[in-house]
Automatic annotation (TrEMBL):
GTP binds at residues 234-239, 253-259, 278-281. Mg(2+) binds at S238, T259. It comes from Acidipila rosea. This is tRNA modification GTPase MnmE. GO terms for molecular function: GTP binding; GTPase activity; metal ion binding. HAMAP family: GTPase_MnmE. The lineage of its organism: Bacteria, Pseudomonadati, Acidobacteriota, Terriglobia, Terriglobales. (6S)-5-formyl-5,6,7,8-tetrahydrofolate binds at R29, E89, R128, K455. It is an enzyme of class 3 (hydrolase). It is found in: Cytoplasm. InterPro entries: G_TrmE, GTP-bd, GTP-bd_TrmE_N, GTPase_MnmE, MnmE_dom2, MnmE_helical, P-loop_NTPase, Small_GTP-bd. Exhibits a very high intrinsic GTPase hydrolysis rate. Involved in the addition of a carboxymethylaminomethyl (cmnm) group at the wobble position (U34) of certain tRNAs, forming tRNA-cmnm(5)s(2)U34. Binds 1 potassium ion per subunit. It comes from the Bacteria. Residues 224-377 form the TrmE-type G domain.
């Protein structure tokens, strides 16, 4: 269960909140009851710190008492701060020497080093944000595309919590009514009849189902999609891979079968990370290394979310390509007829989206990107608010659904309400855990330990 807020809030923590290395500005963040007193000893302030106000301050050299740097200091007084306790942020010049000296001075004066994510953990423990919002802070910092950042920002603002709270309230209401029915069975209180319970449970199941389904989209936003680039040797896979990346990474040569190892790079398509995997040619093996490459390539295709089959349009279709095209009909796939610059043709052979390109001249590359965007969008880009973005969240929603389905089944068989209640309580525990109201300490530790220091 949650740690005791009062015990940790006695401690003052400190960390460098800006990334390691040199920069224009570097920020040392102090949180806790000693924050103001400690900052006062390290800095020469022209005016005393005031809540939500930036102050100019000289950073004092601890040995000579001379001015070592100039800084801008912001102060947020408890409880109206990020963590809920006093926070002082010293924005000095971004020199590791100065920032580390400041941290050392804070440690000498009673602060301790903050653990990764501890500031956000405090925000959670003090009740300023719930667990889904805390997770979103990490997602926002880790976002690689603007779209990912937008989704994280929505969740940080409580989009998921807002979706879950009414469900939880309705569930608590239902539980209360059933409890009343049991506790006052002798009295004349009207107890919900079973059909009524079924209806009530069903109205809870429906929005939870929608949430559970949003995880597929959340997973895609978070982890991206894999695109296997497959085709015969020399069709131009590596060239297209490179053209898509706009920089040289894969080996491009005129002799077939050189891309033996899988090469992976990530691009952003429609704000979704797309992991391009360049595979070895799909042809019969002529030597051992090549056969390993081909096996890998088939495996990659099986594992990939999306497949791009590259065909050399100057050659007629090989039998293996026809076979492959037929199997791809079941997949989210794209056909690319490459080498259009040297008189390629595009036979109408498939229902699959088809693009004509020249990796050499760049012809058709815009169309290829559009086709990839369409493919990515068709892979579950539904809505941007209230999506489940972590496996943990999905497991809690699934657990809640399981409890409700069991309650529904129990209610349908007319068994005593006590049994229905057990399942409803189980569902409630999962929803509580989702937002962090009853999340065990080890799970919390796991979540916050993946944050960066200083957040
Ligand atoms: P891979 O084996 O499928 O990865 O094919 P590569 O990308 O290594 O390309 C094989 C050869 O075809 C190289 O010599 C490329 O320069 C050439 N090539 C690739 N794409 C095109 C294209 O669109 N037009 C022309 N004319 N040559 C291309």
């Amino acid at each position: 269960m949650k740690s005791d807020f009062s015990s940790w809030s006695q401690e003052t923590i400190v960390a460098i909140s800006t990334p390691p290395g040199r920069g224009g500005i570097g920020v040392v963040r102090l949180a806790g009851p000693l924050a103001v007193a400690i900052a006062g000893q390290l800095l020469r302030l022209r005016n005393p710190l005031a809540h939500a106000t930036a102050r100019f301050a000289e950073v004092i050299d601890p040995e000579t008492a001379a001015k070592l740097d100039e800084s801008v200091v912001t102060f947020f007084a408890a409880p109206n701060s990020y963590t809920g306790d006093d926070i002082v942020e010293i924005a000095a010049h971004g020199s590791p020497v100065i920032l580390e000296m400041l941290v050392r001075q804070c440690l000498n004066r009673g602060a301790r080093l903050a653990r990764p994510g501890e500031f956000t953990e405090r925000a959670f423990l003090s009740g300023r944000i719930d667990l889904t919002q805390a997770e979103a802070v990490k997602d926002l910092i880790g976002s690689q595309t603007l779209y990912q950042a937008r989704v994280a920002a929505g969740q940080m603002g409580g989009a998921l919590s807002r979706r879950v709270h009414p469900i939880k309230e309705a569930l608590v209401g239902l539980i209360a009514r059933l409890e009343a029915g049991i506790d006052f069975a002798e009295d004349d209180i009207e107890v919900a009849g079973n059909p009524e319970i079924l209806t009530a449970v069903d109205t809870l199941i429906q929005p939870l189902n929608t949430l559970a389904a949003s995880f597929e989209h959340g997973r895609i936003i978070h982890s991206g999609l894999t695109l296997a680039i497959v085709g015969r040797p020399n069709a131009g896979k590596s060239s297209l891979f490179n053209a898509l990346l706009k920089r040289e990474r894969a080996i491009v040569t005129a002799s077939p079968g050189t891309t033996r190892d899988l090469v992976t790079e990530t691009v952003a398509i429609g704000g979704i990370p797309l992991h391009l995997v360049d595979t070895a040619g799909l042809r019969e093996a002529t030597d051992e290394a090549e056969s390993i490459g081909i096996r890998k390539s088939r495996e990659t295709m099986a594992d990939a979310d999306l497949v791009m089959l590259v065909v050399d349009s100057t050659l007629s279709l090989a039998e293996e390509e026809r076979v492959l095209i037929a199997t791809l009909a079941e997949r989210k796939a794209l056909l690319v007829f490459n080498k259009s610059d040297i008189g390629g043709h595009t036979p109408a052979i498939s229902e699959l989206p088809t693009v004509q390109t020249s990796a050499l001249t760049g012809e058709g590359m815009a169309e290829l990107q559009d086709a990839l965007l369409a493919l990515v969008s068709s892979s579950g880009a539904v809505e941007t608010d209230a999506v489940l973005t972590s496996l943990r969240q999905h497991e809690e929603v699934s657990g809640a659904l399981k409890g409700l389905l069991a309650a529904r089944a129990a209610a349908a068989t007319n068994i005593p309400h006590e049994m229905v209640l057990l399942d409803l309580y189980s569902a409630l525990r999962h929803l509580d855990s989702l937002t962090g109201e009853t999340t065990p300490d080890d799970v919390l530790n796991l979540i916050f330990s993946t944050f960066c220091i200083g957040k």
